[in-house]
């Protein structure tokens, strides 16, 4: 398992912001070599990590990022579909 670049704790694939972003941009999950190249970060907050509020804000039930990142409504659908794909791929492994 990969470690979060913010908190240093393990990041399960189903909560990996880096893999989520890759799916948002490329439509698929990166291979092992690519994932090692990009690292990992929690997407949703955990007990020890704030996660990635700028990405998580597009997911149902998550608060808007209050750090000044713009909320782009046109990204909602794609982000939510990418998150669903990430969860399905994580459950398949």
Describe the structure.
By secondary structure, the protein is mainly alpha-helical. It has one domain (2-92). Helix content is 41%, strand content 4%. The chain has four helices and two strands; from the N terminus they run ββαααα. It has helices spanning 17-26, 32-38, 53-56, 76-92; strands at 2-3, 10-11. It has a two-stranded antiparallel ribbon with strand order 1-2. β1 (2-3) and β2 form a beta hairpin. α1 (17-26) packs across α4 (76-92). The protein is globular and about 30 Å long. The two termini are 12 Å apart. 24% of the residues are buried.
Gyration radius, rounded: 13 Å
- Global geometry: globular
Distance between the terminal alpha carbons, to the nearest Å? 12 Å
Tell me the strand order in the biggest sheet: 1-2
How much is the average pLDDT? Answer: 90
Number of strands: 2
Helix content: 40-55%
* Class inferred from helices and paired strands: mainly alpha
Question: In what range is the share of β-strand residues?
Answer: under 5%
Low-confidence stretches: none
Number of helices: 4
Estimate nothing, just give the exact number of structural domains. 1
Main beta-sheet annotation: 2 strands, antiparallel
Order of helices and strands: EEHHHH
Quick tags:
93 residues; 4 helices; two-stranded antiparallel ribbon; mainly alpha; 2 strands; 4% strand; globular
Give a summary of the structure in a few sentences.
This protein has about 90 residues and is mainly alpha-helical. The chain has four helices and two strands.
